[in-house]
Amino acid sequence: MAFTTVIALLLATSSIVVSQNSSSPSSTSVANASQTSSAPASFVTNLELSVEDLWDLYVGPVSTFSINTTVQPTPIPSSSLIPPPSLYYPSFPTGQQVPLQSKNESWRFPKTFWYGVAGASYQIEGAVKAEGRGPSIWDVLSHRVPGYVITNETGDNADNNYYMYKEDIARIAALGIKTYSFSLSWSRILPFGSGPVNEQALLHYDDLIDTCISYGVTPMVTLYHWDLPLFLQNSYGGWLSEKIVPDFTEYARIAFTRWSSKVHYWFTVNEPIVFCGFYPLPENFFKKTDIPKKQQPYFCGHNVLLSHSAAYRLGKSINSSLSISFKTNGGYKIPRTDSAADAQAVQRAWDFQEGWFANPTFLNGDYPPNLKSHVETFLTPFTDAQKEQINGTCDIFAHDAYTSDFIEAPESGIEACIANSSHTLFPSCYNTTKLYANNYWAIGPASDPGSPWLYKATDWVPAFLHYMQDTWKPRDGVAITEFGISEPYEELRTNLASIVIDPLRSAYYRDYLSAILIAISEGVNVVGTLAWSIYDNMEWSQGYSVKFGIQYVNLTTQERYFKASAFEYVNMFNVYQEK
Ligand code: NOJ
């Protein structure tokens, strides 16, 4: 691979340390050999590294899968498209009358409502070193940081989607799913995050998008789903630095320019609360930073808002008809008691979760009050020009709305928490629980223990949808851009027949979609849904142990199988969508 770059500062990794005192100076080119300094931190070096060097030095060997060229799709056997037997309550198999279960004639999904499935590059693609891809921070986190992925697994092969995307698209099309949301791997397109562009990656995504279109599946593209090019992290701290703004915007420019005539729906970043919460990254694997640990997520958030809004405005200037938004996440927040303190805690929770990104973009270009009074102690406030740039830069409220939580004030009280930066709940100063105030019943059935944040709480969805519409008033409506549940202990099931019947996930989709139908009938403009996920995949620090797929993937053979939930999901649209 011909790409090389200059790395400005070398870091200690778990296996190598390169210092200015290296006994083999030929390996570095020191900018100014006669420079003297008494501050070791000021010693920096320029070192030319190829993509291959980045892999070797920072990640080490990666594994590859036996299928390593693009697979042509095989016809989807009609036997695999027969709906499953009824669950503990009847569903609506196409063409079948179900006793005791009638269609609710006052519910309907409008004709324009889109429904699909979602995945993300690092979680599904595999082929991490193929065709010029540069490493991302997740290659380091999964390969080098002991225990960061609890199962010690990596995304090296994942679902081998990089080679099997045609089959994957054919399968969802055969189910009747009309939308596929995926993310681009930034470090495939720009192996160093900025600089030289990798044409092979562009050709790959050309074909992925064209394949969707040829199957009548609408492609939706997310630019950034957590796999930050490693080089940007090590050059300037990634999202911690404002230097990311031009780099992200340039990356967005490449994508918009290439695909804006084929892709209408774009998401700039996925769940910034979560990826900004990755900071501080584990020590000694990435470039060091002086920013205090608890402040790092907010520096990240600041630069996300600047990057997103710059990309939004650029995208609109390239093609004003595009729909561009970011995907946020959070959950419905229910006061645990009717005390004034819990009401205040609920507002803090909205402000520190959804509001962190939604208020600036949907309301006024700035942070919500509870968050603002915290971040203004260390962040340079947005200028008026920046506020203007940020305000209005989401076309839809694209929310990954999996669940709900009870919220309560900290035991010590909110004020005491705000005044004490070492309080465990500082700076947000609210508590979250899944238990009703009787401390006995949970809000609903629990998902897999590997996703303790997620319970089935679909009864709260109509209230949540109303809240989103009423609070942030999105121009083009609300979309649920991820929802789904990890079936408890699914990984322990060893035989196919038991794996593919997933009753909790099936009930979740059916009840969630019923809740959306209720909200629509009450006037909420819900415009689309994306089920997470197209199939089981690399669930980040949980590895492959936690399953969210509506398809099972045998990771040894890479064969895919539909689960019952896939049929439940599609069936709700077969029954309720206007033809
Ligand atoms: C949201 C994230 O976007 C996705 O990457 C993750 O796998 C799911 N939640 C499930 O945790």
From TrEMBL:
Q: Which UniProt keywords apply?
A: Glycosidase, Hydrolase, Signal
Keyword Signal listed: yes
A GO BP entry is: carbohydrate metabolic process
- The reply on keyword Cytoplasm is no
Q: Which domain of life is it from?
A: Eukaryota
Q: What is this protein called?
A: Glycoside hydrolase family 1 protein
Q: Which residues does UniProt assign to the signal peptide?
A: 1-19
TM helices/strands, residue ranges: none
Family, according to the entry, reads as follows: Belongs to the glycosyl hydrolase 1 family.
Gene Ontology MF terms in the entry: beta-glucosidase activity
